Every structure is written in structure tokens, then in C-alpha cells.
Task: inverse folding
């Protein structure tokens, strides 16, 4: 099982016991890594020579957990679309047909008023969601077994955006926020991989969020209480 863009989320998925029992792991990352039990390939995920190296391992599945490569829309296209296009071209050239799990985002949804959202409601208004949906479409049209995991905002140790916002006095507003703990996100990756490798019916798209969406101001008020920060210190965003 190969992880392209193998960072913290990939490492957490590799630690999943059932996944580790069924697969040997290959990690693809820009920086040099050394992890027991993982074969590492270093370089740009869009590099054809690197992808040729990956093809030599003939992975049964590929997990794609990328990040932007620069600022703005261009950074998203370089970070997500360029590697994905190169990967699909490499697989076509080698004739390999691994399953692919892609870490996408709820940014594909424009809704912000607390409405009920279905997977087919994706109609992004911003560039982040637009690029993610383009990436999902590439996968859906690839002819491979694929699953796009649309993650809500990932939180956990070292993913402390909301904590820093509260500490800065930003109290949020009435718009709903969907979050997912990083360990639960990693478990979702493992779940999708195990479904696909065992040929179980698996949706092309899965929303991956905590089961309790809430207004951002409520989430920030809860965080403030845990940090003993008076609510008077928070101002609406």
C-alpha cells in the first residue's frame, strides 16, 4: 500500500493494526524519511521518474494525502492536480490498476447556513473546493476503484487552528462547522482501504466528519471554557 504525500495523517493510518496486518507500506514524501517497516521514496509526487520507481513496487492500493504547493489557486493545482494527473498517466502506462483513496475536503460544498448536505450537492464556490472536485472527477473517470474522503476540518495535537483563534479573541459566528479528529480521519482511510482491497461495495465519495456539527461560535465557546478564557474576551468574527 503506497502513501503519496505521506505526512502525519498517513503515518496514523499506517499505525492502524488491521491495515498493518494486510499490507506492506511504501511512503512517498518530499523530504527524507526513515520509518521502520516503511519503504520510502523521496521526491516530488508529480515527478515521472519517482512515479516509475513507485510502479516497480506494483502497489495494490494508493492513498493520496496531498497539500497545497504554494499560495492560492495555483498552489492547489500544483499540490493536488499535477501529482494526481501524473499518477494516473503513470498507472495507465504501466497497466497497473490499484485502488486509490483520495483525501478530499468538505470545501466542495458551498452551503454554510446549516442545511442538510448530500454528497451530490457539491458545487464549490471557492478555488479550494473547485480544485478538490476536479481531482475527484479525475479519479471517478479513471476506470479504477476509487474513494474520495471529504474530510471536515481536521483537529488534534499540533492541529490547533481553532485554539489559536480563541486565544486571539476570535469568537466565530452562527455558521456551522464540521470537524474530524485526526485519529478518526486516519481510521477512515484504513476503513476505505480495507473495503476496497476486500472488494466490498464502497461509495465513490464519503463525507468524514464528527457526527455533531455545530455553530463555530459554540465550538469556540467550548474551547474557551477548557482554556479558562472568559467568554467576554471573544468577539464575533
Result:
Amino acid at each position: 500500500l503506497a502513501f503519496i504525500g505521506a505526512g502525519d495523517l498517513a503515518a496514523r493510518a499506517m499505525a492502524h493494526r488491521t491495515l498493518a496486518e494486510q499490507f506492506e507500506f511504501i511512503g512517498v514524501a518530499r523530504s527524507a524519511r526513515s520509518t521502520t517497516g516503511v519503504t520510502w521514496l523521496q521526491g516530488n509526487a508529480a515527478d515521472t521518474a519517482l512515479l516509475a520507481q513507485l510502479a516497480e513496487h506494483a502497489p495494490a492500493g494508493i492513498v493520496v494525502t496531498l497539500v497545497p504547493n504554494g499560495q492560492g489557486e495555483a498552489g492547489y493545482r500544483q499540490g493536488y492536480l499535477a501529482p494526481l494527473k501524473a499518477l494516473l498517466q503513470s498507472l495507465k502506462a504501466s497497466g497497473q490498476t490499484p485502488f486509490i483513496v483520495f483525501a478530499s475536503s468538505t470545501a466542495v460544498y458551498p452551503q454554510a447556513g446549516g442545511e442538510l448536505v448530500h454528497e451530490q450537492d457539491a458545487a464549490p464556490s471557492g478555488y479550494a473546493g473547485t480544485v478538490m472536485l476536479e481531482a475527484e472527477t479525475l479519479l471517478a473517470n479513471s476506470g479504477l476503484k476509487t474513494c474520495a474522503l471529504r474530510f471536515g476540518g481536521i483537529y488534534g495535537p499540533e492541529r490547533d487552528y481553532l485554539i489559536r483563534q480563541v486565544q486571539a479573541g476570535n469568537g466565530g459566528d452562527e455558521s456551522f462547522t464540521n470537524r474530524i479528529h485526526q485519529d478518526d480521519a486516519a481510521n477512515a482511510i484504513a476503513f476505505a482501504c480495507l473495503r476496497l482491497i476486500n472488494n466490498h461495495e464502497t461509495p465513490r465519495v464519503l463525507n468524514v466528519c464528527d457526527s455533531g456539527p455545530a455553530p463555530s461560535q459554540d465550538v469556540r465557546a467550548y474551547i474557551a471554557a477548557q482554556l479558562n478564557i472568559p467568554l467576554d474576551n471573544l468577539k464575533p468574527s
